[in-house]
Amino acid sequence: MTAARLAHTNRRTTVTYIDDIRTALDSQTPGLAPELLDLYTLLALVQGPNVRLADIHDAWAIWRSRTRPDHRSIVPFNDLTPEVQALDQPYADAVARAVTGGQP
Questions:
Q1: What is the pTM of this model?
Q2: What tens digit of pLDDT does each residue of 48-60 get?
């Protein structure tokens, strides 16, 4: 991934630094809803390897509040059990790897 690359045009396909990060995340977290993938991509851009579990949870909670507003885990991160908090770790690791080239 080249973060400095603003755009590379190949016929009708434009690939940007955002696409690079989104693709890296998608390969590590298959099956995510596109909207959630976009939120995690934003976290990769603004937090990078410093992303916190609470950040991942907040992004998920924003997405989930649109798809299932009655979900019991739409609460502040610190109100979750440690077991539920730990579910965010693979996504935080993926966000970090997406911007560091594989190192969490």
A1: 0.84
A2: 999 999 999 999 9
Containing structural domain, residue 80: 8-100
103 phi/psi in degrees, rounded to 5: -100, 125
- 3 within some domain: no
For 3-31, write each residue's pLDDT tens digit. Answer: 444 444 444 578 899 999 999 999 999 99
Handedness of CA 52, 28, 65, 38 (dihedral sign): positive
Maximum alpha-carbon separation in the chain: 50
Domain assignment present for residue 93? The answer is yes
Contacts for 40 with CB less than 8 Å, ≥ 6 apart: 25, 29, 32, 56, 59, 91, 94, 95
Distance CA 32, CA 51 (A): 18
